[in-house]
# Entry
Amino acid sequence: MEFQIPNFLPLLPEITLATFGLVILLVVAFARRCGTSLAFYLAQAGLLCAVVATWMVADELNVTFGQMYLYSPLGDLLKMATCLIVAGGLLYGRDYLRAHGMETGEFYLLVLFATLGIMVLVSAGSLLTVYIGLEMLSLASYALVASNRDSARATEAAMKYFVLGALASGLLLYGMSMVYGATQSLGLIDVARTLFEQQAANRTILLFGLVFVVAGVAFKLGVVPFHMWLPDVYDGAPTPVTMFIASASKLAAFAMACRLLAFGLWDLIEHWRHMLLFVAIASIVLGNVAAIAQSSIKRMLAYSSISHMGFLLLGFISSVPANIHHAYASALFYALTYALSSLAAFGILSLMTREGIDAENIDDLRGLNKHSSWWAAMMAIVMFSMAGLPFFVGFFAKFFVLQAFWQAGYAVLTVIAVLMSLIGAFYYLRVVKVIFFDEAQDARTVGGHWFARGVLSANVLALAALGLFPSLAMQLCVVVMQNSL
Amino acid sequence: MDLSFPTLCFYLFSAILVFAGLRVITSRNPVHAVLHLVLAFFTSGMIWMLMQAEFLAIAIVLIYIGAVMVLFLFVVMMLDMNVDRMREGFWRYLPVGLVVAAIMVAEMAVVLNGHYFSGVTLQPSPLTDGSLSNTRELAKIIFTDYAYPFELASLILLVAMIAAVMLTHRRRESARRIDPAQQIAVKARDRLVIHSVAPEKADVVTSAQQEESAK
# Structure
């Protein structure tokens, strides 16, 4: 067997980001005085260069490095979205990090490598690269959660995240080994082909592995019954890190579910559909009901993320052959929408932080309207969009997913999901009520650099603007999915 | 089922491995636990040897046992742990854990029943025609077909290193340290002040007289 040099060009975004990471490592080590701000600007430059590189090498569905690297429009879209979201998150989080004395070059370095992990994951073409991308993302995330070393809560959250994450990685790896044992291949295309060709062979062992793979995916998404870590981690982690976990990480989890379930194990859809159905409905119910009882806004958003991920899974479940692309496209649209709105929500929270005092409880937002009507309106837009009120983008995300779910023939469950999302509207609207109608406690408002505030405003306004042209964005998602599966 | 010598060895090693793994989590003495972990690593190395993966077997002995576990032993011996308090929960949760584990093992045994893998025919790797040694084969694969994950794995190690430095390295304020660059750049006028004092005639005063006047 003669070895051929693989095509390196599609890897340009990853190579760019890794190079910037290594340069930052040297800068942090040698430039003492201005190393940290230099690291910040280099990280931003690296992320933007990666976006440009992704745009330049965007291509049709193909593989390189054997099947290790699979590039597709879906991967390109998710990569660009991830890089932009992380760049925005770093911008919003910088003032928080400074106020808490946590701004170090290593922080930016870890965020950059976590982003690299996401990029590897979204363009993974084999079980091996899926796992390696996931580990790179997870390892960096554990450390980021613990980055505020003086906070006992952050350390506890990091320990929980680490132990449960290691367990989930073990489960996923065990499932992958079963799949490998049954199909004799690591490449996702080979796995799918083998499953298609030998319909009956070794089904038991495959199903056995599938259970563990689904468990690993469910943990990364943070859905019931693997949701225990989520509220503690959201609450305990520094707000910029929560922002990362709630936005970019969710895109990675979506990509992982897409690659493993919708691509590699596609032939087992009848089996994983039932597992996901339970998981999704349980998440929607638990997330929306438990969020009502929360007084900490970060915990509330954690439970809301559990329910949002449940909605996202509805898109996977409704992928009947008739409207398969539409179903996955609705899930993709939901993932992008959720990432954008949680980026905005945590961005506002992290810019409201002052020296030593975090905006963590819902009460901290009390009377925000008195001090700054602009930011009160911004927070209200984010909450309306998350609640799924009409004519914000969140409404259309829910609408498309539920439409696909209905068409797949789950009428009763669709009604349950709608009811639950109505219950969920209560706690989002409560935040709006607190902002506009409660008496202010202290003069707390959104601060930070003017540029960060400007980008954040644009981010929030995008949520409203996208709601005006939802079909355009949805059409893009459908085209991307048609060319990727 | 034919019980050839390698198969027999495999079962023997597996039994030792399972035993050692159990002892890691049940032994009361942390040093014993670490030693059993060494045994577990060594036995899995031997199982790899049975599969003719010599390089992996030697690597696990050298790296895990030789370096990592020795470090573990040092750490365990240096930490003064209150072992009894750590184990309080263990015996309380043991029955439940055992029942769950037994059910899981039984279910797996019923479901898998041992014969699902026997139908699978393993294709021999195209490289294993005996012309190359195990290490060479591995190297050839790692740097060609698996170059991408291999490089990524190295980045993961880098991430682990950065994370460890970030979480443990603290610049202590109280520590007395000297910056060599600052030390070299120092000028005489930073340290030494020369006053030009006008010469004057001082009275000769003895210390005894001074004390008296003070009184």
